[in-house]
Amino acid sequence: MANYYQKELETMPRQELEEMQLQKLKQQVRHVYQNVPYYRAKMEEKGVSPDDIQSLSDIAKLPFLTKNDLREAYPYGLLGAPLSQCVRIQSTSGTTGKRVVAFYTQHDIDLWEDCCARALVAAGCTSEDVVQVCYGYGLFTGGAGMHGGAHRVGALTLPMSSGNTERQLQFMQDLSSTMICCTPSYAEYLIESMKEQGITPQDTTLKAGIFGAEPWTEEMRHEIEESLHINAYDIYGLTEISGPGVAFECQAKSGMHICEDHFLVEVIDPDTGEVKPKGEPGEIVFTCLDKEAFPLLRYRTRDIAVIKYEPCSCGRTHVRMSKPMGRSDDMLIIRGVNVFPSQIEAVLLTEGYCANYQIVVDRVNHTDTLDVYVELPPERFSDTIKNLSALENALASAIRTMLGIGAKVHLVAPKTIARSEGKAVRVIDKRKLH
Ligand code: DLL
Fold it and tell me: Which end is more exposed in the chain, N or C (fewer Cβ atoms within 10 Å of the end residue's Cβ)?
């Protein structure tokens, strides 16, 4: 039996939904044009005005926004509401220089939490449930979003935040958690810790988990479901658009329904920017239809996915997106932190290394590892081991300062890192996630 949080909106007939989207789009474009000079300038440059938006496909006339625009307009340049009406910010984790600060009015928080509540209810949550939220709280949207969603459903909410595994497992048992929200890699870590402590699925009352914020595979889903005796659901979102709940899986577990009454989705060719024919994979682009404070139009997510238009057995009419199959930029997500190889390169350059380097990401015991292999400049090659190890530590600490996460640095002899014949292979991601 399908469960809905906002049945009328979630199962709205397509034609009605599209009429509503068009009406909201027209209003939103006008709102942004009038209130966001940064975007208005981009529209003027493209020669488009709010009157040019007469159908949903007219959206293709509007300019795109990218992470670069967010950086350029940082921090207030894309604000669509006076600061006095904003009640919250959230931000992406640990990516100095690339940090996104998103603003919310109370209306924006409400619609975001509604989306999270939809995801929870789709996974079987009711007011009888005990929801253990172990996404990070604070600037990261994971904790705040799922917490707000669980409140809306009326569930007992355990605001655990991430980490402190012993306490997580103790509360899970003592307070009879029935649902858990965390990253899939943290779920795997919890499973491992349970095994070590001799805690079996029968010792818990968990029935479902909602996992997202990073890529994970069907194999991981099976492993988590088998090990915890639960149903595991995927959830997708990004800070720029609101946070978790932009799309979520229903009990069919076959793609994530996009909350299309709030977010209009397009799929484009990442190289040309052209809209792709229906059903083809491409870069996902979102337009916020009714957000006030951070009303991004045509925001390029860099996530590559496919949209399914077929009706779903759950009765929801909103289209479904596949798990992201990769990114059209080189961003890595390591232990939940967005990392660009260029940031590591920048550290190496400032510290006087430039010859050649390689970044190796792996997943060991369910935790991401980051190893940076750096060739020593020939003049330093004869240094003592003590000196070399001090250099490694200094580099590792500079990388930690830049990224907010630890890395293991290995200094290697000049010319030992394989040269590539084509583009340099700067990153080796050994995690089998796509
Ligand atoms: O990760 C929001 C979130 C929190 C989603 C909790 C789900 C659960 P950001 O830190 O801004 O926001 O990172 C957004 O993470 O563009 C994707 O590349 C990736 N991502 C998010 N969810 C998934 C998922 C949050 N289910 C970036 N599968 C996005 C794969 C995901 N990648």
Answer: N
Is the minimum distance from the CB of 183 to ligand 1 under 6 angstroms? no
Residue type, 255: G
The CA 195 to ligand 1 mean position distance, Å, reads 28
Rg of the chain over all Cα atoms, to the nearest angstrom: 23
Angle at which helix 106-122 crosses helix 141-153, to 10 degrees, equals 70
Ligand 1 centroid, distance to 138 Cα (angstroms): 16
Question: Which segments of the chain belong to CATH 3.30.300.30?
Answer: 334-429
Nearest atom (ligand 1) to Cα of 215 = 30
What is the pLDDT, as a whole number, of residue 79? 98
The CATH class, in words, for 7-329 is alpha beta
Neighbours of 414 (CB within 10 A): 14
Nearest to residue 60, comparing CAs of 46, 77, 44?
A: 46
- The burial of 427, by beta-carbon neighbours within 10 Å (0-12 exposed, 13-18 middle, 19 or more buried), is given as middle
Q: What's the predicted TM-score (pTM) here? A: 0.86
Ligand 1 pocket, residue 129 CB under 6 Å: no
- Of residues 105, 135, 107, 103, the one with CA closest to residue 119: 135
Tally Cβ neighbours within 10 Å of residue 228.
Answer: 21
Q: Which residue has the higher pLDDT, 111 or 342?
A: 111
Where along the chain do the CATH 3.40.50.12780 domains lie?
7-329
What CATH code is assigned to 334-429?
3.30.300.30
Nearest to 248 by CA among 189, 181, 190: 181
Show the tokens assigned to 187: 């779920």
What's the sign of the alpha-carbon dihedral 361, 362, 363, 365?
A: negative
29, amino acid identity: V
Residue 39's H or E segment, with its range, is helix 37-46
